[in-house]
Specification:
313 residues; alpha/beta; 5-stranded parallel sheet; 4-stranded parallel sheet; globular
Length: 313
C-alpha cells in the first residue's frame, strides 16, 4: 500500500490511488472498531497533538479516538484559550511544537493556508482538520468511504451537493475528490451562496433544487454557515428551507435508492427535515460519523509509516 505524502493538507495533491489507499486501509479499521478489542499499535510510541484554533467537538473527538485506538499518546491543546489571546504568531507556535517533538499534528484553523504554513515549519506529519474556506480533507475521505460502502463503488455516480457552497471547505474537498474519482457532481444552492467561477471545477450548477436532484444517486446537504456570513445571503431561514431544504417531496425526485448525507452539525428544519435525517433506509449520516474514526485512523497510520521511514533513512 503506497501513500507517498509527508502530510495530509488537502485533497488537491492526492492521486486517485492515494485516495483508494486510505479508503482500503480504513475498511480494515472499520472492522477493528466494530470488534470487542478496538486497539491497534500502528501509532505506538508516537505523540499526537490536536490543535484546534476553531471549536469542533465532532472532528476533534474523532481524531482523539482514532489516535488512542492506534496506541498514540494524544494531547489536546486548547488553542482558543491560550496562545491566540496572548498574541503568539503561528511561527512561534511551530517553534514551540518542535521543542515538544510531536510525531503527528492535527490542526484546525480559521484562516485558509494556516495549516500549510505550520506544516512547512514543524518536523512532524501534519493533518488538516479544516482551514478557513480552503479544505477539510478527512471529511471528504470519510464521505467517500460512506458512499463506497453504500453504493458498492466510488465512480460514475451522480452526486448532488446542496446548500451553502460558498462558505464550505467540505464542499471544496468533496468536489475535488469526487471529480478525481470520475463522478458527476452537481452543486445546488442560491446564487448568493455559490462561489464565482465554480463551474470551472467541472461541476454542474443549479439554483433550482428540483432540477438539480433529478436522478441523482447521492444527496449531500450542507450546513448554513452563518458564522462565516457577513451579509444578507438568504432572505430568511423559513424561505431557505422552502426552496433548498431537503424534505420528502424533493428527495422523491432523486433515484429511489439515493442516499442522504450531511457532515454535521445539522440545522433540522433549515437545510434538512428531521424525519429525512433519521430515516434509516435513506440517511447514512450516522455512518459518516463512524467512517470518520476509521478514515482518520488510516490517514494517521499511513503518515506515521512515512515518518518512520524518513527518520530511519
Amino acid at each position: 500500500m503506497t501513500f507517498a505524502h509527508a502530510h495530509l493538507l488537502g485533497i488537491e495533491p492526492l492521486a486517485p490511488g492515494d485516495i483508494t489507499a486510505i479508503l482500503d486501509l480504513a475498511e480494515d479499521y472499520v472492522t477493528l472498531n466494530r470488534s470487542a478489542v478496538k486497539h491497534g499499535d500502528a501509532l505506538k510510541g508516537l505523540t499526537q497533538i490536536n490543535m484546534f484554533f476553531e471549536a469542533s467537538t465532532r472532528t476533534q473527538a474523532s481524531f482523539e479516538l482514532a489516535g488512542k485506538r492506534l496506541g498514540a499518546d494524544v494531547m489536546n491543546m486548547a488553542m482558543q484559550a491560550s496562545s491566540l489571546k496572548k498574541g503568539e504568531t503561528l511561527i512561534d507556535t511551530a517553534l514551540t511544537l518542535n521543542a515538544m517533538h510531536p510525531d503527528l499534528l492535527v490542526v484546525r484553523h480559521p484562516q485558509s493556508g494556516a495549516v500549510d504554513l505550520l506544516a512547512q515549519k514543524v518536523r512532524c506529519a501534519v493533518l488538516n482538520a479544516g482551514d478557513g474556506r480552503h479544505e477539510h480533507p478527512t471529511q471528504a475521505l470519510l464521505d467517500a468511504l460512506t458512499i463506497r460502502r453504500a453504493k458498492g463503488r466510488l465512480h460514475r455516480l451522480s452526486i448532488a451537493i446542496c446548500g451553502d457552497i460558498a462558505h464550505s471547505r467540505v464542499a471544496r474537498s468533496n468536489i475535488l475528490l469526487l471529480g478525481k474519482m470520475e463522478n458527476r457532481v452537481r452543486l445546488i444552492g442560491p446564487p448568493t451562496l455559490m462561489p464565482a467561477g465554480i463551474a470551472e471545477f467541472g461541476v454542474e450548477v443549479f439554483d433550482d433544487m428540483r432540477a438539480g436532484l433529478e436522478g441523482v444517486d447521492v444527496v449531500m446537504m450542507l450546513r448554513l454557515q452563518k458564522e462565516r456570513m457577513d451579509g444578507g445571503f438568504i432572505p430568511s431561514e423559513r424561505e431557505y428551507y422552502h426552496r433548498y431544504g431537503l424534505d420528502a417531496e424533493k428527495l422523491a425526485i432523486a433515484k429511489p435508492d439515493a442516499i442522504v448525507m450531511h457532515p454535521g452539525p445539522m440545522n433540522r428544519g433549515v437545510e434538512i427535515d428531521g424525519e429525512i435525517a433519521d430515516d434509516i433506509n435513506r440517511s447514512v449520516i450516522q455512518d459518516q460519523v463512524e467512517m470518520g474514526v476509521a478514515v482518520r485512523m488510516a490517514a494517521m497510520d499511513l503518515l506515521a509509516r512515512n515518518l518512520r521511514a524518513r527518520r530511519a533513512a
